[in-house]
Design goal:
By secondary structure, the chain is α/β, with parallel strands linked by helices. The protein has twelve helices and 21 strands. Bound molecules: adenosine-5'-diphosphate and guanosine-5'-monophosphate.
Length: about 425
Amino acid sequence: MFSSGTLMVIAGPSGAGKTTLAHHLVDTFDRATFSVSATTRAPRGEEADGEDYFFISHDEFAQKVEDSFFLEWAEVHGNRYGTPGKWVREKLASGYSVVLDIDVQGAIQVKKSVPSAVLVFVLPRGRNVLLKRLRGRNTDSEKTIEGRMEAADWEVSRLGAFDYFIQNCGLEQSQHDIETIFTAERMKLSGMGWPDAAIEFVPEKFTGLENWKGKQVLVSSGPTREMIDDVRFISNRSSGLMGVSLAEAFLAAGAEVTLVSGPAAVMNPPGAVELVRVQSAADMKRALQERCRGTDLLVMAAAVSDYAPETRLSGKLKRSEGKMSIALSSTEDVLASMKGNFRTLAFALEYGDEARGRAEAKMERKGADAVFLNRGDLPGQGMESSVNAGSVLFPDGSEIIVPAGSKKFVAFCIAAALGRRFS
Ligand code: ADP
Ligand code: 5GP
Protein backbone atom coordinates (compact mmCIF):
# COMPACT_ATOMS: atom_id res chain seq x y z
CA MET A 1 0.00 0.00 0.00
CA PHE A 2 1.25 3.47 -0.89
CA SER A 3 1.50 5.83 2.04
CA SER A 4 2.80 9.36 1.73
CA GLY A 5 4.91 10.37 4.73
CA THR A 6 3.71 12.90 7.29
CA LEU A 7 5.49 16.21 7.68
CA MET A 8 5.64 16.88 11.44
CA VAL A 9 6.79 20.30 12.54
CA ILE A 10 7.70 20.71 16.19
CA ALA A 11 8.09 24.31 17.24
CA GLY A 12 7.94 26.48 20.32
CA PRO A 13 10.34 28.69 22.25
CA SER A 14 13.96 27.75 22.74
CA GLY A 15 14.20 25.42 25.78
CA ALA A 16 10.58 24.18 25.46
CA GLY A 17 11.67 20.60 24.71
CA LYS A 18 11.33 20.46 20.89
CA THR A 19 14.60 18.66 20.27
CA THR A 20 13.91 16.15 23.06
CA LEU A 21 10.49 15.27 21.58
CA ALA A 22 11.67 15.29 17.96
CA HIS A 23 14.42 12.77 18.82
CA HIS A 24 11.90 10.65 20.63
CA LEU A 25 9.75 10.38 17.48
CA VAL A 26 12.62 9.48 15.20
CA ASP A 27 13.95 6.92 17.72
CA THR A 28 10.52 5.35 18.28
CA PHE A 29 9.07 5.00 14.78
CA ASP A 30 10.28 3.23 11.66
CA ARG A 31 10.40 5.35 8.53
CA ALA A 32 10.63 8.63 10.42
CA THR A 33 13.63 10.86 9.90
CA PHE A 34 15.00 14.32 10.70
CA SER A 35 15.57 17.01 8.19
CA VAL A 36 19.04 18.54 8.55
CA SER A 37 18.83 22.32 8.19
CA ALA A 38 21.39 24.69 6.71
CA THR A 39 22.59 27.51 8.94
CA THR A 40 24.93 30.48 8.86
CA ARG A 41 25.89 30.02 12.50
CA ALA A 42 29.25 28.49 13.42
CA PRO A 43 29.39 24.89 14.73
CA ARG A 44 29.21 24.52 18.53
CA GLY A 45 31.22 21.90 20.48
CA GLU A 46 30.94 18.46 18.92
CA GLU A 47 28.52 19.48 16.14
CA ALA A 48 29.29 17.83 12.80
CA ASP A 49 28.66 19.30 9.33
CA GLY A 50 25.90 17.39 7.53
CA GLU A 51 24.74 15.74 10.73
CA ASP A 52 23.58 18.51 13.07
CA TYR A 53 23.44 21.20 10.38
CA PHE A 54 24.94 22.05 7.05
CA PHE A 55 27.15 24.96 8.08
CA ILE A 56 27.31 27.40 5.18
CA SER A 57 28.43 31.02 4.58
CA HIS A 58 26.09 34.02 4.37
CA ASP A 59 26.71 34.22 0.61
CA GLU A 60 25.89 30.54 0.08
CA PHE A 61 22.72 30.94 2.13
CA ALA A 62 21.64 33.98 0.08
CA GLN A 63 22.24 32.05 -3.15
CA LYS A 64 20.10 29.15 -1.92
CA VAL A 65 17.30 31.56 -1.02
CA GLU A 66 17.53 32.96 -4.56
CA ASP A 67 17.39 29.44 -6.03
CA SER A 68 14.23 28.59 -4.00
CA PHE A 69 16.21 25.80 -2.35
CA PHE A 70 14.42 26.17 0.98
CA LEU A 71 10.96 24.99 1.99
CA GLU A 72 11.19 27.75 4.61
CA TRP A 73 13.90 29.85 6.12
CA ALA A 74 14.12 32.37 8.94
CA GLU A 75 16.50 34.48 10.95
CA VAL A 76 16.58 33.10 14.49
CA HIS A 77 18.54 34.72 17.31
CA GLY A 78 20.78 36.53 14.80
CA ASN A 79 21.55 33.61 12.47
CA ARG A 80 19.79 32.24 9.39
CA TYR A 81 18.38 28.74 9.26
CA GLY A 82 16.59 26.93 6.42
CA THR A 83 14.95 23.58 5.58
CA PRO A 84 15.90 21.93 2.24
CA GLY A 85 12.69 21.68 0.15
CA LYS A 86 13.55 19.06 -2.47
CA TRP A 87 15.03 16.66 0.07
CA VAL A 88 11.93 16.88 2.27
CA ARG A 89 9.54 16.24 -0.65
CA GLU A 90 11.56 13.28 -1.91
CA LYS A 91 11.57 11.70 1.54
CA LEU A 92 7.81 12.20 1.91
CA ALA A 93 7.19 10.72 -1.56
CA SER A 94 9.20 7.63 -0.60
CA GLY A 95 6.90 7.12 2.39
CA TYR A 96 9.17 8.54 5.07
CA SER A 97 7.75 10.90 7.64
CA VAL A 98 9.96 13.92 8.18
CA VAL A 99 10.32 15.68 11.52
CA LEU A 100 11.32 19.35 11.56
CA ASP A 101 12.58 21.00 14.75
CA ILE A 102 12.36 24.63 13.69
CA ASP A 103 11.33 28.01 15.02
CA VAL A 104 7.78 29.40 15.03
CA GLN A 105 8.21 31.73 12.01
CA GLY A 106 9.50 28.77 9.98
CA ALA A 107 6.64 26.52 11.08
CA ILE A 108 4.08 29.06 9.89
CA GLN A 109 5.83 29.32 6.52
CA VAL A 110 5.81 25.52 6.15
CA LYS A 111 2.04 25.43 6.62
CA LYS A 112 1.64 27.87 3.72
CA SER A 113 3.55 25.74 1.23
CA VAL A 114 2.58 22.36 2.71
CA PRO A 115 -0.94 22.75 4.17
CA SER A 116 -1.02 19.05 5.13
CA ALA A 117 1.98 19.56 7.48
CA VAL A 118 1.15 18.92 11.15
CA LEU A 119 2.21 21.76 13.42
CA VAL A 120 2.84 20.97 17.09
CA PHE A 121 3.53 23.72 19.61
CA VAL A 122 5.53 22.73 22.70
CA LEU A 123 5.59 24.79 25.88
CA PRO A 124 6.55 24.04 29.50
CA ARG A 125 4.09 24.82 32.31
CA GLY A 126 5.04 28.48 32.63
CA ARG A 127 7.55 31.21 31.92
CA ASN A 128 9.64 30.40 35.00
CA VAL A 129 9.94 26.74 34.06
CA LEU A 130 11.16 27.76 30.59
CA LEU A 131 13.77 30.06 32.18
CA LYS A 132 14.94 27.24 34.47
CA ARG A 133 15.27 24.79 31.56
CA LEU A 134 17.28 27.27 29.49
CA ARG A 135 19.63 27.82 32.45
CA GLY A 136 19.74 24.09 33.19
CA ARG A 137 20.87 23.31 29.63
CA ASN A 138 24.17 25.12 30.37
CA THR A 139 24.71 26.13 26.74
CA ASP A 140 23.90 29.86 26.76
CA SER A 141 25.04 33.04 28.54
CA GLU A 142 22.59 35.00 30.74
CA LYS A 143 22.33 37.66 28.00
CA THR A 144 21.46 35.05 25.36
CA ILE A 145 18.89 33.54 27.70
CA GLU A 146 17.32 36.99 28.19
CA GLY A 147 17.01 37.37 24.38
CA ARG A 148 15.45 33.91 24.06
CA MET A 149 12.87 34.74 26.76
CA GLU A 150 11.88 37.89 24.87
CA ALA A 151 11.56 35.89 21.66
CA ALA A 152 9.39 33.37 23.55
CA ASP A 153 6.76 36.07 24.23
CA TRP A 154 6.43 36.73 20.48
CA GLU A 155 6.38 33.00 19.68
CA VAL A 156 3.58 32.25 22.14
CA SER A 157 1.49 35.01 20.54
CA ARG A 158 1.51 32.90 17.32
CA LEU A 159 0.16 29.78 19.06
CA GLY A 160 -3.23 29.89 17.28
CA ALA A 161 -1.62 29.04 13.93
CA PHE A 162 -0.78 25.50 15.17
CA ASP A 163 -2.70 22.19 15.01
CA TYR A 164 -1.69 20.64 18.36
CA PHE A 165 -0.44 21.81 21.74
CA ILE A 166 1.75 19.81 24.12
CA GLN A 167 2.34 21.12 27.62
CA ASN A 168 5.72 19.62 28.29
CA CYS A 169 5.66 18.93 32.06
CA GLY A 170 6.37 15.26 32.75
CA LEU A 171 8.59 14.03 29.94
CA GLU A 172 6.98 10.59 29.79
CA GLN A 173 3.51 12.10 29.29
CA SER A 174 4.78 14.47 26.59
CA GLN A 175 6.47 11.60 24.77
CA HIS A 176 3.23 9.65 24.89
CA ASP A 177 1.35 12.72 23.58
CA ILE A 178 3.62 13.23 20.58
CA GLU A 179 3.47 9.51 19.75
CA THR A 180 -0.35 9.71 19.79
CA ILE A 181 -0.41 12.69 17.43
CA PHE A 182 2.04 11.02 15.08
CA THR A 183 0.15 7.72 15.05
CA ALA A 184 -3.22 9.38 14.38
CA GLU A 185 -1.78 11.53 11.58
CA ARG A 186 -0.23 8.50 9.89
CA MET A 187 -3.61 6.74 9.92
CA LYS A 188 -5.36 9.57 8.06
CA LEU A 189 -6.89 8.43 4.79
CA SER A 190 -5.66 11.51 2.96
CA GLY A 191 -2.11 10.71 1.97
CA MET A 192 -2.72 6.95 2.15
CA GLY A 193 -3.59 6.53 -1.53
CA TRP A 194 -6.26 3.88 -2.13
CA PRO A 195 -5.58 1.10 0.40
CA ASP A 196 -4.85 -2.39 -1.01
CA ALA A 197 -7.69 -3.85 1.02
CA ALA A 198 -10.08 -1.45 -0.78
CA ILE A 199 -8.55 -2.04 -4.24
CA GLU A 200 -9.46 -5.72 -3.91
CA PHE A 201 -13.14 -4.81 -4.25
CA VAL A 202 -12.80 -3.31 -7.75
CA PRO A 203 -9.27 -4.20 -8.94
CA GLU A 204 -10.06 -3.63 -12.63
CA LYS A 205 -10.82 0.05 -11.98
CA PHE A 206 -7.25 0.58 -10.74
CA THR A 207 -5.42 -1.19 -13.57
CA GLY A 208 -3.24 1.30 -15.44
CA LEU A 209 -2.17 3.36 -12.42
CA GLU A 210 1.24 1.67 -12.52
CA ASN A 211 1.93 3.32 -15.91
CA TRP A 212 2.38 6.72 -14.22
CA LYS A 213 5.48 5.63 -12.28
CA GLY A 214 8.31 8.10 -12.86
CA LYS A 215 6.13 10.42 -14.98
CA GLN A 216 5.51 14.13 -14.37
CA VAL A 217 1.96 15.32 -13.88
CA LEU A 218 0.76 18.91 -13.61
CA VAL A 219 -2.72 19.39 -12.10
CA SER A 220 -4.70 22.63 -11.97
CA SER A 221 -7.36 22.94 -9.30
CA GLY A 222 -9.92 25.10 -7.56
CA PRO A 223 -11.68 28.28 -8.64
CA THR A 224 -9.94 31.48 -9.71
CA ARG A 225 -10.63 34.93 -8.25
CA GLU A 226 -11.09 37.93 -10.47
CA MET A 227 -10.85 41.00 -8.26
CA ILE A 228 -13.39 43.84 -8.47
CA ASP A 229 -11.66 45.90 -5.78
CA ASP A 230 -9.19 44.90 -3.05
CA VAL A 231 -11.94 43.06 -1.14
CA ARG A 232 -14.58 41.76 -3.57
CA PHE A 233 -14.12 39.27 -6.35
CA ILE A 234 -15.90 37.10 -8.92
CA SER A 235 -15.42 33.40 -8.40
CA ASN A 236 -17.33 30.09 -8.47
CA ARG A 237 -18.31 27.15 -6.27
CA SER A 238 -15.37 24.84 -7.07
CA SER A 239 -14.05 23.41 -3.78
CA GLY A 240 -10.71 22.11 -5.07
CA LEU A 241 -11.40 18.60 -3.76
CA MET A 242 -11.33 16.98 -7.22
CA GLY A 243 -7.95 18.55 -8.05
CA VAL A 244 -6.40 17.59 -4.70
CA SER A 245 -7.74 14.03 -5.09
CA LEU A 246 -6.24 13.78 -8.60
CA ALA A 247 -2.88 15.03 -7.30
CA GLU A 248 -2.98 12.35 -4.61
CA ALA A 249 -3.94 9.63 -7.12
CA PHE A 250 -1.06 10.40 -9.51
CA LEU A 251 1.36 10.68 -6.57
CA ALA A 252 0.22 7.31 -5.24
CA ALA A 253 0.78 5.90 -8.74
CA GLY A 254 4.44 6.99 -8.52
CA ALA A 255 4.36 10.25 -10.51
CA GLU A 256 6.04 13.51 -9.57
CA VAL A 257 3.12 15.88 -9.12
CA THR A 258 2.71 19.67 -9.11
CA LEU A 259 -0.64 21.16 -8.12
CA VAL A 260 -1.42 24.69 -9.25
CA SER A 261 -4.42 25.80 -7.21
CA GLY A 262 -6.59 28.86 -7.09
CA PRO A 263 -7.91 29.89 -3.65
CA ALA A 264 -9.87 26.73 -2.88
CA ALA A 265 -11.53 25.47 0.31
CA VAL A 266 -9.57 22.23 -0.11
CA MET A 267 -5.89 22.74 -0.78
CA ASN A 268 -4.10 20.11 1.28
CA PRO A 269 -2.42 17.59 -1.03
CA PRO A 270 0.14 15.21 0.51
CA GLY A 271 3.39 17.02 1.36
CA ALA A 272 5.26 15.36 -1.52
CA VAL A 273 3.11 17.28 -4.02
CA GLU A 274 4.50 20.67 -4.91
CA LEU A 275 1.76 23.22 -4.29
CA VAL A 276 1.70 26.48 -6.25
CA ARG A 277 -0.92 29.02 -5.16
CA VAL A 278 -2.45 31.38 -7.68
CA GLN A 279 -5.36 33.84 -7.69
CA SER A 280 -6.67 34.88 -11.11
CA ALA A 281 -7.08 33.14 -14.48
CA ALA A 282 -4.09 35.13 -15.75
CA ASP A 283 -1.95 33.94 -12.77
CA MET A 284 -3.04 30.38 -13.39
CA LYS A 285 -2.08 30.54 -17.04
CA ARG A 286 1.34 31.98 -16.19
CA ALA A 287 2.01 29.37 -13.47
CA LEU A 288 1.02 26.47 -15.75
CA GLN A 289 3.05 27.76 -18.68
CA GLU A 290 6.13 28.11 -16.47
CA ARG A 291 5.79 24.52 -15.28
CA CYS A 292 4.50 22.59 -18.28
CA ARG A 293 7.90 21.96 -19.84
CA GLY A 294 8.91 18.34 -19.25
CA THR A 295 5.45 17.39 -18.06
CA ASP A 296 3.88 14.17 -19.36
CA LEU A 297 0.29 15.05 -18.50
CA LEU A 298 -1.63 18.25 -17.81
CA VAL A 299 -4.88 17.77 -15.88
CA MET A 300 -7.10 20.85 -16.06
CA ALA A 301 -9.43 20.28 -13.10
CA ALA A 302 -9.52 24.00 -12.23
CA ALA A 303 -12.74 25.96 -12.74
CA VAL A 304 -11.11 28.94 -14.44
CA SER A 305 -13.19 32.09 -14.66
CA ASP A 306 -14.43 32.88 -18.17
CA TYR A 307 -14.79 36.58 -17.40
CA ALA A 308 -12.90 39.16 -15.36
CA PRO A 309 -13.65 42.81 -14.47
CA GLU A 310 -12.04 45.15 -16.97
CA THR A 311 -10.51 47.23 -14.20
CA ARG A 312 -9.63 46.53 -10.59
CA LEU A 313 -10.44 49.38 -8.24
CA SER A 314 -8.01 50.02 -5.41
CA GLY A 315 -9.23 49.96 -1.80
CA LYS A 316 -12.85 49.16 -1.07
CA LEU A 317 -15.62 50.39 -3.34
CA LYS A 318 -17.96 52.61 -1.30
CA ARG A 319 -21.62 51.74 -0.97
CA SER A 320 -24.03 53.99 -2.84
CA GLU A 321 -27.76 53.80 -3.46
CA GLY A 322 -29.19 52.50 -6.72
CA LYS A 323 -27.82 50.30 -9.46
CA MET A 324 -24.25 49.74 -10.46
CA SER A 325 -22.69 47.71 -13.22
CA ILE A 326 -19.30 46.13 -13.66
CA ALA A 327 -17.81 45.77 -17.12
CA LEU A 328 -16.43 42.28 -17.71
CA SER A 329 -14.28 40.95 -20.50
CA SER A 330 -13.49 37.35 -21.33
CA THR A 331 -10.29 35.80 -19.99
CA GLU A 332 -7.87 33.94 -22.24
CA ASP A 333 -8.55 30.22 -22.57
CA VAL A 334 -5.83 28.62 -20.44
CA LEU A 335 -5.91 25.10 -21.87
CA ALA A 336 -6.10 26.15 -25.51
CA SER A 337 -3.04 28.38 -24.94
CA MET A 338 -0.89 25.55 -23.51
CA LYS A 339 1.45 24.08 -26.08
CA GLY A 340 3.96 21.32 -25.56
CA ASN A 341 4.72 17.67 -25.83
CA PHE A 342 2.27 16.46 -23.22
CA ARG A 343 -1.18 14.93 -23.06
CA THR A 344 -4.05 16.94 -21.65
CA LEU A 345 -7.20 16.04 -19.78
CA ALA A 346 -9.94 18.69 -19.78
CA PHE A 347 -12.90 18.82 -17.40
CA ALA A 348 -16.42 19.65 -18.48
CA LEU A 349 -19.20 20.36 -16.02
CA GLU A 350 -22.31 20.21 -18.16
CA TYR A 351 -26.06 20.54 -17.66
CA GLY A 352 -28.98 19.15 -19.69
CA ASP A 353 -29.52 16.76 -22.60
CA GLU A 354 -26.65 17.86 -24.79
CA ALA A 355 -24.03 17.38 -22.05
CA ARG A 356 -21.97 14.78 -23.91
CA GLY A 357 -21.96 16.67 -27.20
CA ARG A 358 -20.86 19.87 -25.49
CA ALA A 359 -18.07 18.05 -23.59
CA GLU A 360 -16.81 16.52 -26.85
CA ALA A 361 -16.92 19.90 -28.55
CA LYS A 362 -14.92 21.38 -25.67
CA MET A 363 -12.28 18.62 -26.01
CA GLU A 364 -11.92 19.40 -29.70
CA ARG A 365 -11.89 23.19 -29.26
CA LYS A 366 -9.16 22.97 -26.65
CA GLY A 367 -7.16 20.31 -28.45
CA ALA A 368 -7.37 18.01 -25.39
CA ASP A 369 -6.57 14.27 -25.50
CA ALA A 370 -9.45 13.40 -23.19
CA VAL A 371 -12.24 15.11 -21.28
CA PHE A 372 -13.88 14.11 -18.02
CA LEU A 373 -17.58 14.85 -18.25
CA ASN A 374 -19.39 15.38 -14.99
CA ARG A 375 -22.95 16.56 -14.66
CA GLY A 376 -23.90 19.68 -12.76
CA ASP A 377 -27.59 18.75 -12.75
CA LEU A 378 -27.51 15.38 -11.00
CA PRO A 379 -28.37 15.53 -7.29
CA GLY A 380 -25.61 15.13 -4.70
CA GLN A 381 -22.57 15.27 -6.98
CA GLY A 382 -20.27 17.73 -8.68
CA MET A 383 -19.27 21.11 -7.26
CA GLU A 384 -19.13 21.49 -3.46
CA SER A 385 -19.95 17.81 -3.04
CA SER A 386 -17.61 15.07 -1.82
CA VAL A 387 -19.10 12.69 -4.41
CA ASN A 388 -18.69 12.61 -8.17
CA ALA A 389 -19.28 10.37 -11.20
CA GLY A 390 -18.98 10.70 -14.95
CA SER A 391 -17.09 9.42 -17.94
CA VAL A 392 -13.77 9.97 -19.57
CA LEU A 393 -14.32 10.68 -23.28
CA PHE A 394 -11.65 10.33 -25.96
CA PRO A 395 -11.38 11.96 -29.42
CA ASP A 396 -12.08 8.60 -31.17
CA GLY A 397 -15.55 8.61 -29.62
CA SER A 398 -14.78 5.97 -27.00
CA GLU A 399 -15.68 6.39 -23.35
CA ILE A 400 -14.69 4.95 -19.95
CA ILE A 401 -17.48 5.20 -17.40
CA VAL A 402 -16.49 6.18 -13.87
CA PRO A 403 -19.13 5.05 -11.37
CA ALA A 404 -20.28 7.24 -8.49
CA GLY A 405 -18.02 7.38 -5.45
CA SER A 406 -16.03 9.80 -3.33
CA LYS A 407 -14.02 12.28 -5.40
CA LYS A 408 -10.93 10.41 -4.23
CA PHE A 409 -12.30 7.17 -5.73
CA VAL A 410 -13.24 8.96 -8.95
CA ALA A 411 -9.75 10.51 -9.12
CA PHE A 412 -8.08 7.10 -8.87
CA CYS A 413 -10.43 5.71 -11.54
CA ILE A 414 -9.60 8.62 -13.89
CA ALA A 415 -5.83 8.27 -13.34
CA ALA A 416 -6.06 4.52 -13.99
CA ALA A 417 -8.22 5.02 -17.12
CA LEU A 418 -5.68 7.50 -18.55
CA GLY A 419 -2.83 5.16 -17.59
CA ARG A 420 -4.47 2.40 -19.65
CA ARG A 421 -5.04 4.67 -22.67
CA PHE A 422 -1.90 6.75 -22.75
CA SER A 423 0.78 4.18 -21.90
P1 ADP B 1 14.45 23.02 22.61
O1 ADP B 1 14.87 22.07 21.53
O2 ADP B 1 13.01 23.39 22.53
O3 ADP B 1 15.32 24.22 22.72
P2 ADP B 1 15.38 20.95 24.44
O4 ADP B 1 14.75 19.70 23.93
O5 ADP B 1 16.83 21.17 24.16
O6 ADP B 1 14.55 22.24 24.01
O7 ADP B 1 15.08 20.99 26.00
C1 ADP B 1 15.58 22.03 26.85
C2 ADP B 1 16.09 21.43 28.16
O8 ADP B 1 14.98 20.97 28.92
C3 ADP B 1 16.99 20.23 27.95
O9 ADP B 1 18.00 20.25 28.94
C4 ADP B 1 16.05 19.04 28.13
O10 ADP B 1 16.73 17.89 28.57
C5 ADP B 1 15.09 19.57 29.18
N1 ADP B 1 13.73 19.00 29.10
C6 ADP B 1 12.99 18.78 28.00
N2 ADP B 1 11.76 18.30 28.33
C7 ADP B 1 11.73 18.23 29.68
C8 ADP B 1 10.74 17.82 30.63
N3 ADP B 1 9.53 17.40 30.26
N4 ADP B 1 11.06 17.88 31.95
C9 ADP B 1 12.28 18.34 32.31
N5 ADP B 1 13.26 18.72 31.49
C10 ADP B 1 12.98 18.68 30.18
P1 5GP C 1 20.32 26.35 17.54
O1 5GP C 1 21.22 27.37 16.92
O2 5GP C 1 20.24 26.45 19.02
O3 5GP C 1 20.65 24.95 17.04
O4 5GP C 1 18.86 26.63 16.98
C1 5GP C 1 18.25 27.86 17.21
C2 5GP C 1 16.83 27.87 16.75
O5 5GP C 1 16.76 27.72 15.32
C3 5GP C 1 15.96 26.74 17.31
O6 5GP C 1 14.72 27.32 17.74
C4 5GP C 1 15.72 25.85 16.14
O7 5GP C 1 14.47 25.18 16.25
C5 5GP C 1 15.71 26.84 15.00
N1 5GP C 1 16.00 26.21 13.71
C6 5GP C 1 16.87 25.20 13.43
N2 5GP C 1 16.82 24.88 12.12
C7 5GP C 1 15.89 25.68 11.56
C8 5GP C 1 15.37 25.82 10.22
O8 5GP C 1 15.75 25.14 9.28
N3 5GP C 1 14.43 26.77 10.03
C9 5GP C 1 13.96 27.55 11.04
N4 5GP C 1 13.01 28.45 10.73
N5 5GP C 1 14.41 27.45 12.28
C10 5GP C 1 15.37 26.53 12.56
